[in-house]
Structure formats: structure tokens, C-alpha cells
Design brief:
The complex is a heterotrimer. By secondary structure, chain B is α/β, with parallel strands linked by helices. Chain B contains seven helices and ten strands. Chain C has two domains: 175 residues, no CATH class; 158 residues, no CATH class. The relative contact order of chain C is 0.19.
């Protein structure tokens, strides 16, 4: 290992010497590992959203409806729901989203009754004050990501969807999707949307120890023959349904990512092969001076691993930079999938680059080292 | 006991169509401080013999002993270490690592011996001084003439203070002037510093510098005389 | 000229590298085929496949989104009967009252459309490929991509099979094709059956086909005047454009990823071509010294590069052939990547061209290299 470090300048300069070859290799590796990092970031966004959705919160939606804009339930349902055994608190919510399908500028408004909100949601106020919002009719609690995307600051007035609101606070939530939602007063939204007395869904906080499946079934049974039938699910199942639609596309992207990695491996292997072969004589000389075959192989492999790592770092870095400069959230049916730059993804990418570099370099390195010395030295 | 002992050594290469035996049952003794020239036509086995002494190759039969160490019986790893310490090799083609400076090239054996920085520096500058290139230490090989490059490779060969210096056609790629300078240097290393020198050569001029001439033909010694 | 056997022998001599290069080019070729198919597949959800003589009457609160459109059955039937400029064939008006629904079966989402016979007149792209249209109670005619849409194996929706949806058993009476349209991922049934099964009293829209595409303004006027019906007229193309807009982020995402991978592949090919030749300067110089002209040497190099590229391309094309097609589920839709003959030819062509190009740069270098330097080992 110490020997490896002593010879590091040699390896670095050898790579620099074959400038074009090295640049092409690093560029190819950067692109492919960049794709890898990108796909991992998307995957992570999807997983994060799904992970945050728990089973202790239920969502009561209209039966056979998918997009929130098509679900309509009467607000009076709140009473019977609250009376259901196992229910601790209910939050009627009127939802507005600016697109039923996918979009990159998601605006989700949840119109709710102010007094019950902190009994159902857990959030942390980052700036501003919650109490102020409760008393202000046109106030909004804006989720962190949404605030960043729209440049919303506490005390300002902004237009979200079709209504003008006063930003009372910027919040971060532990539940699913909260960072992309703006909470407003139910009455204000209902008036603007001409849906007085209506709600899109009811959020139910379960009492400790209650069985989600049982409570869900009871609620649905209650309204089976009522004005609008309901479909109650855990928040987890609810999010999974919406997000599930994109999973297949993400899997496809993953396959592409892997194919890209295969290409990188082949490129690296080729580069390392050629680099070693063009220095066969040089390496023979090193052996006569006393460099052992294992060390020789390691030096050859070091070039491959090094190039792979540099490419990987470049690719991961570019992806992280892109998402830092341009915070991106993909909206699907009102749910926001956040693409965060993340250290975890960067490290995973580097680890993958290292692994690929190593794998790609193994054969060439062994081949170079195994060359019989006498012949290597003679080769002019 | 002689410094270099070759006992009934045979070397056979197994080729794709036939076997080649450059050395057959050859025995030889070289004492410390000798300057030996190995001569002979191509295919006579002289380079093969040199490689065996250097531990670059192993005999098919027989024994090679250098400074009491049975080289032919060492493992690959031990051999590598032994080569760094005990043998300095000078090639026809200078064979410097093109990306390293003269200083760094000479330093390589010392890196392998894990010497601390101060010691390395001292020895490298001493070696470069001995070959007259102290002022060119930070030049890259491509910035040096053929003769200068050869001298750097000689410096590298002596920097670890080996007992034996082996040279394979050291003046082959040099013009007359540079060749003479190189031979003078080698002679000085032999007479002033007491290095034992075994040199393979075609060149009569080079042979003239040596004090013992050994002629090989078809893998056997046909003549062995003192100059 | 240097005989082609020389090029072949060189490739064989360095077979490990040659194979690695062939695999790399093969992978990139496969990518080219898949990506062009992907692009073409995405276009299916676009305005390009909309008919200019079809107008959709939506509920006024829908805002150009079919998903949110609700029209009472009475209004829909009235509109279908009264809307002007409608095509007529065999006594049937090309005005189709339709109910579009998404249905859940476990965690699978399927797309249902309840229609009357007029629908086939309005949507001529639909052709029955197996069995027949739904005529009996609770029968389904499924599109070619319906199984993909639901994440089910094709056999589950074969003609004669039964599927449980909306708490009822439905029998598959036939299969249809509607290439290049969103309809191919749907399952069609009789309007009355669907309304009964889902206990709905409202429908989604009325789709009409006009005699003359320019008569759209008459339809708009009709919708505006008949306030009692609460409908708005939207050309199908506009609806598709809106759909396209809604899918844009995802398609953009996909296209960006495709571009990245293709670029990586291109670098891979360029690199391997370039570097492989560079390491053989001495050998090439020897050829020159033997008397072969620079042109001959260059041609030999290009031969090698092109040969390798062709083999790689062929490998990629065979892989594409083996895969055939890929069907993907998409938010509220499905599409197919058809790795057909045109795409494969494109892929192979791209590989060969890249081989030619990739061989030229090093060939030029080899040719321009000074003989003396190359032989002396300084090159």
C-alpha cells in the first residue's frame, strides 16, 4: 500500500501523458456515472415519499376516483368518521392541484379547518408562526420545497393556484408530501373553487393501538349507501397507488443506467489494456529493478480505478450541482417527488465507480503482470 | 568463494514448433572486482546468461549463486527484493520511465527499499554526481541526450549500492563519443568503487575496457581469457 | 494495398480487446435502437395522432382535462342528437356518448371506456383483431396494450377469459388495435353496462366526428348557445396537446437520460477506436518502411475499425431482435417500444458509420506520422 502511494505520481503522470485517451475515458465514465447518479436520485425521491407515508394515518377518498380534483365528498361526513371507534381526530380537506398528471411546477393546496391541523399533522415551523395562520382567513402555511420553488417568504403575498394568500409560515413536515403543500383555510379555498360544503378527502389520525384495516373498513361501510361512496386506505397505500404509476418508467431508467455502467466497464478495461500494453517495456524494466508482479498489477489497476473514480466524481458532482441550482420536484397526481442532491447518492456513485474501475482493471492488470519478464524487457 | 557461481546451468525455451536451448551445461566463476565481457554471435546465449545472473530468468537445470545467495532457488517475491538490493542492470535502450525526471528515475530502487526521504535524497544526488549529471537532476528523459540518458540509467543501477553491475550492450545505441564516455564511467565504477561488472557486448571497443573476455558459442564457453 | 487478411489477423491477435470493443459497440447499438423506439413510442401520446375531424364535448368545469369532465347523461344524449355538422353513415350519427373511467383491481389500474356502437364510427382507428366488440352483458373488448397497462400477462386478457373489475366478472369478447393512440391501452364495454356496474348517472363526454373539419366553429357556437347542456367543444388535437403537456416532464426526463447514455456510448466507441491504433505506431511505421503507401496503411486501419463496428452493430441488432418489443406502463397509460426493422437498420447503420469515422482519425494520424520518429520509438 505504501509502495502504491510512492508510485502514485508515476500513475498520474502516465495518465496525463496520454491526454486524449484519458480525457475520452473520463468523459465517458462521467456521463455514464452521471446517469447512474441521476437515476438513483429519482429512485430516492420516490422511496422517500413512500417511506414517509405511514400506516397510522388514513385517507378517506371518494370511491373509484384517482385524481384529487375528481373526488367529492360532503363535509358533513366528518361527524360520522370522528365517531368511528379507533379514530382520534379527523381533518376534512379540500385539495387543489394544478395538474392531474405529471408536471414540474406542482402546486398543491390543502384547504383545512385551522383548529384541527396540528392534531393530525406533525410539522416543524421553520419561519413565521402557526398561531397567526389560524386566525388569518387568507393565510397559508407553505411547505419548504414549495416555498423554495415559488420564492415564498413569510409576510409576503403570493398567488398559489387560483387564490392569493398571505404567507404566515414556512413549514417542514415528517409526513408524506408536506414539503410541497400549502395549507390554507377550508372556507377560503371552497369559496374560490365554488365547492362550499365539499371536501376532497378526510385525513384520519388513528388512536394508538387501533387497527388501520378495521377502521378503514368500518368507515367505508358507514357510507356505503350514502350520497358518495368512500374508499379508505392508509396513507402508505394511498401514496403507493399514485406513485406506483411511475415505478415502471424508473425501472426502465435503471436498466439504462446499468447498460451505461457496462459500457463504462468496457471502456475502462480497454483503456487499461492499451495503457499497459504500450508500456510493456517500461514495466519490464521496473520488474528488473525489483518491482514485484503484484505491485505492477496494482499500478496498472490503479490507473483504471483512478480514471473510474474521477469520472464518477465528475458525474455525481454535476448531478448534485444541477439539483442544487435547480431544485426539482416532479408532481404526479398532486404528490411531489423531490430530487434532492444527496451525499448518500454521491457516495453510492463513487462506490459504484470504484467497483466498476476495479472489475474492469482486473484482467488487464493480471495480463500485464503475468507477462514473462525476459520477453518484456527484450520487447523494443 | 567466488562472487558469482554458475554451476552446470542449462536453459531451454519451449517454443510453439520446437525447443530452443540457448545454454547447455555451462559452468563459470566470476570473482569480486572483476570486469568481464561476454561476447559471441547472436544466439550464443550471452544475454540469457546475463539474465540468469540477474535473476530475470531461472535455469532449467543447474544452479546460480550470487554473493552466497542461491538465486536459482529464490521465490518470485524474494527475487524481486534481491534484485533491488544486489544487482544493478543497465540496458541497451536506456529504459528510463519517460514520465519521471532523472532524479525520480534514480530514486525508484530506493522507494522499493523503503528508505526515508533524507537518505534517499543523499544517495540519489551521490549517484547522479558520480555519473556527472548532478545539475540535470530535474530534467525529463526526453530533455536529455542519448548519452546522458544512459548515464542516468547507470546512476539508477548503482544507487542501491549493489555488488554486481550487469550491462547488456550498454553502448549499442550511442555514438562514439558518448560510448567512450560511458565505458570510462563503467571502468571507473569498477576500479575506483570496486563494482563487479559483467557486460554483454558486440563492440570491440567496449570489450577493450574489460579485463576478462569470455566468448560463447551455441550455449557453451569457447574461450575465456584475461585481457 | 495491404490485404484484408492483415486487418483480420490483427483483430484476432488482440482478441480480448476486440471482443470487448465489439461488446461495447453492440451495447451502444442496442441503446440506439431502444432509444429511437422509445422516442417513437412517446409520440403516441401526442397531438400527432389526433384526428382533425374529431371534436370532444366536455363538461364546462373540466378545463380541457378529460379526467375531470362530467356531463349528465341527459345532456350528453341531447347534445349527441343535436350537434351540427356530424358525419352520418348507414343511418348512424357519428356522435358517441362515452364514459371514461380508471378502475382499480388490487393495486393494478385499468382504463375502461363505456361506449355505444357510434363510437366505432367516431374512432375509425379502432379495428377488431380478434373476437368481436362487446354485445352481451358485461363483455369487454381489450386493446393490445391493456394487459401492459394493468401489469398483467397477456394471457389473462385473452379472448374468453374473465376478469373481475368493479366487483363484477367481465368476459373478454375480443381484442382491438388502435396503433399510435391512447385507446390501445383501454378496455371497451357497453355504456349501459359500465354505468350500471359503477352506479354512475353521469358520463364523461360526447365524441363527434365532423363531415368537414372546418365546421368546428359551428360546434363551438352550438356549445356556447346551449347553456343548459353545460358543455364545451374541444378539438381532439387540443386535448391530446394538453395530455402531452401533462406528460412532458416524464418524457423530457426520459429523453435526457437517453441522451446521456448515447453520449456515453459514443465516447466509448470513439475512445476504443482512437486508443487502439495509437498503441501500434511502430508496427504501422514498419509497414510504411516496407513500402506500403500511407494511403494503404490508412485503408487497412479503416478496414479494421469498420469491421469491428459492423460486428458490434450486428451483435446489437441481434439482441434487439431477440427482445422484440418492450411494453411499459406509464401514468394512466401504456406504450410500446417497438424494436422493429427500421430501428434496427438505423442502429446498424449508426454503428458502421461510427466505425468508419472512428477509423479515420487514427488513420490520418498514422499516415501523417514521421517515419523516422515512429521507427525510433519516439512516436
Amino acid at each position: 500500500m505504501r509502495d502504491l502511494l510512492s508510485f502514485l505520481p508515476y500513475v498520474v503522470r502516465t495518465a496525463r501523458r496520454a491526454r486524449t485517451r484519458t480525457l475520452l475515458t473520463v468523459a465517458g465514465a462521467a456521463l455514464a456515472m452521471g446517469l447512474f447518479a441521476f437515476v438513483r436520485t429519482v429512485e430516492r425521491g420516490v422511496d422517500d415519499l413512500s417511506a414517509r407515508a405511514g400506516t397510522q394515518t388514513l385517507v378517506v377518498f371518494q370511491d373509484s376516483r384517482f385524481c384529487p380534483l375528481t373526488s367529492e365528498l360532503p363535509v358533513r361526513y366528518a361527524g360520522p368518521i370522528r365517531d368511528t371507534p379507533g379514530v382520534e381526530e379527523v381533518l376534512p380537506t379540500l385539495v387543489f392541484i394544478n395538474s392531474c398528471r405529471s408536471n414540474l411546477d406542482l402546486v398543491t393546496l390543502h384547504g383545512v379547518e385551522p383548529r384541527s391541523i396540528d392534531k393530525v399533522y406533525d410539522f416543524k415551523v421553520l419561519d413565521g408562526d402557526l398561531a397567526g395562520w389560524k386566525t388569518r382567513g387568507d393565510g397559508a402555511l407553505v411547505g419548504e420545497r414549495l416555498a423554495a420553488r415559488r420564492g415564498a417568504r413569510v409576510g409576503e403575498r403570493i398567488r398559489l393556484g387560483e387564490i392569493d394568500v398571505h404567507v404566515n409560515a414556512v413549514v417542514r413536515g415528517s409526513g408524506a408530501g408536506i414539503d410541497n403543500i400549502a395549507f390554507v383555510h377550508l372556507d377560503q379555498l371552497a369559496l374560490a373553487r365554488k365547492k362550499l360544503g365539499g371536501a376532497t378527502q378526510f385525513l384520519v389520525r388513528l388512536s394508538p393501538g387501533a387497527d388501520p384495516a378495521e377502521v378503514a373498513e368500518t368507515i367505508d361501510r358507514t357510507f356505503k349507501n350514502d350520497e358518495s361512496r368512500t374508499d379508505t386506505k392508509t396513507m402508505q397505500a394511498f401514496v403507493a397507488g399514485a406513485v406506483g404509476e411511475i415505478r415502471e418508467v424508473v425501472s426502465f431508467a435503471k436498466m439504462l443506467g446499468y447498460l451505461a455502467v457496462v459500457i463504462v466497464a468496457l471502456v475502462l478495461a480497454n483503456t487499461v489494456f492499451i495503457s499497459a500494453q504500450s508500456r510493456a517495456n517500461e514495466m519490464g524494466v521496473m520488474e528488473t529493478i525489483g518491482v514485484t508482479k503484484p505491485l505492477l498489477a496494482a499500478l496498472v489497476a490503479l490507473e483504471g480505478v483512478g480514471l473510474g473514480l474521477v469520472g464518477g466524481a465528475l458525474g455525481a458532482g454535476l448531478v448534485a450541482l444541477a439539483f442544487t441550482i435547480h431544485p426539482t420536484t416532479l408532481g404526479i397526481e398532486g404528490w411531489g417527488i423531490d430530487f434532492h442532491p444527496s451525499l448518500a447518492v454521491a457516495l453510492q456513485t463513487l462506490a459504484a465507480s470504484f467497483a466498476v474501475g476495479l472489475l474492469a482493471s482486473v484482467l488487464p492488470a493480471i495480463d500485464a503482470a503475468m507477462r514473462p519478464l525476459a520477453r518484456a524487457v527484450k520487447e523494443e | 568463494m567466488s562472487l558469482i557461481e554458475i554451476d552446470a546451468v542449462t536453459k531451454t525455451y519451449h517454443g510453439t514448433s520446437e525447443d530452443v536451448t540457448p545454454l547447455e551445461d555451462l559452468s563459470l566463476r566470476i570473482d569480486e572486482g572483476e570486469f568481464v565481457a561476454l561476447m559471441g554471435p547472436s544466439g550464443s546465449g550471452k544475454t540469457t546468461l546475463l539474465n540468469l545472473i540477474a535473476g530475470i530468468d531461472q535455469p532449467t537445470a543447474g544452479r546460480v549463486t550470487v554473493a552466497g545467495e542461491e538465486v536459482s532457488a529464490l521465490s518470485a517475491r524474494e527475487l524481486a527484493r534481491w534484485r533491488t538490493r544486489s544487482v544493478g542492470f543497465v540496458f541497451q535502450g536506456y529504459n528510463l520511465l519517460p514520465v519521471l525526471t532523472a532524479y525520480e528515475n534514480v530514486e525508484v530502487p530506493l522507494l522499493l527499499l523503503r528508505l526515508p526521504r533524507a537518505d534517499r535524497d543523499r544517495k540519489v544526488m551521490t549517484a547522479l554526481g558520480a555519473v556527472g549529471l548532478g545539475d540535470r537532476a530535474h530534467h525529463l528523459p526526453r530533455q536529455l541526450s542519448g548519452g546522458q540518458q544512459q548515464r542516468v540509467s547507470i546512476a539508477r543501477a548503482i544507487v542501491a549500492d549493489p555488488k554486481v553491475l550487469l550491462a547488456d550492450e550498454p553502448t549499442g545505441n550511442l555514438d562514439r563519443v558518448a560510448a567512450t564516455a560511458t565505458l570510462d564511467l563503467l571502468k571507473r565504477l569498477n576500479t575506483e568503487f570496486g563494482k563487479t561488472l559483467v557486460m554483454v557486448t558486440h563492440d570491440a571497443l567496449a570489450a577493450g575496457a574489460a579485463d576478462r573476455l569470455i566468448h560463447l558459442d551455441k550455449g557453451r564457453i569457447v574461450e575465456d581469457a584475461h585481457a | 494495398m495491404i490485404p484484408i487478411a492483415y486487418a483480420l489477423r490483427n483483430l484476432w491477435r488482440r482478441r480480448a480487446r476486440t471482443i470487448a470493443t465489439i461488446l461495447g459497440i453492440g451495447a451502444t447499438t442496442l441503446l440506439v435502437v431502444v432509444m429511437t423506439a422509445f422516442s417513437a413510442g412517446l409520440d403516441n401520446a401526442s397531438a400527432k395522432t389526433a384526428r382533425d375531424d374529431v371534436v370532444i364535448l366536455l363538461g364546462t368545469s373540466a378545463e380541457v382535462d378529460l379526467v375531470r369532465s362530467v356531463v349528465t347523461r341527459g345532456s350528453a344524449e341531447a347534445a349527441a342528437a343535436a350537434v351540427p355538422g356530424v358525419l352520418s353513415a348507414g343511418g348512424v350519427r357519428a356522435a358517441s356518448v362515452e364514459l371514461h373511467l380508471a378502475t382499480r383491481s388490487g393495486d393494478r389500474i385499468g382504463l375502461l371506456r363505456g361506449v355505444n356502437p357510434a363510437a366505432y364510427l367516431v374512432h375509425p382507428q379502432v379495428s377488431v383483431i380478434e373476437g368481436r366488440d362487446p354485445r352481451g352483458p358485461f363483455e369487454l373488448m381489450v386493446g393490445r396494450l391493456a394487459a401492459t397497462r394493468m401489469g398483467l400477462p397477456e394471457s389473462d386478457l385473452a379472448v374468453g377469459r374473465t376478469i373481475r373489475l368493479e366487483n363484477r366478472d367481465w368476459k373478454v369478447s375480443g381484442r382491438f388495435a388502435a396503433p399510435g393512440t391512447v385507446m390501445e391501452a383501454e378496455m371497451w364495454t357497453r355504456l349501459d353496462d359500465l354505468m350500471l356496474a359503477t352506479k354512475r348517472e353521469d358520463v364523461s363526454c360526447v365524441a363527434v366526428r365532423l363531415e368537414d373539419p372546418d365546421a368546428i366553429d359551428d360546434v363551438r357556437l352550438f356549445a356556447a348557445r346551449r347553456l343548459d347542456l353545460e358543455i364545451a367543444a374541444v378539438p381532439e388535437a387540443e386535448l391530446m396537446r394538453e395530455l402531452e403537456r401533462g406528460l412532458k416532464p416524464i418524457t423530457a426526463l426520459a429523453r435526457w437520460m437517453a441522451l446521456l447514455v448515447l453520449a456515453a456510448g459514443a465516447f466509448a466507441c470513439a475512445n476504443t477506436m482512437f486508443a487502439a491504433v495509437l498503441a501500434r505506431t511502430r508496427e504501422l511505421a514498419t509497414l510504411r518502411a516496407l513500402g506500403y503507401s500511407p494511403f494503404a496503411v490508412a485503408i487497412s486501419l479503416v478496414q479494421e475499425a469498420t469491421l469491428v463496428a459492423f460486428l458490434g452493430g450486428a451483435f446489437g441488432v441481434f439482441a434487439a431482435l431477440a427482445i422484440g418489443h418492450i411494453s411499459l406502463r406509464f401514468p394512466m397509460g401504456a406504450f410500446t417500444l417497438d424494436l422493429d426493422v427500421q430501428r434496427r437498420a438505423l442502429g446498424l447503420g449508426a454503428a458502421v458509420v461510427s466505425g468508419l469515422l472512428g477509423g479515420i482519425v487514427p488513420a490520418l494520424r498514422a499516415v501523417r506520422m514521421r517515419l523516422v520518429d515512429a521507427l525510433g520509438g519516439k512516436a
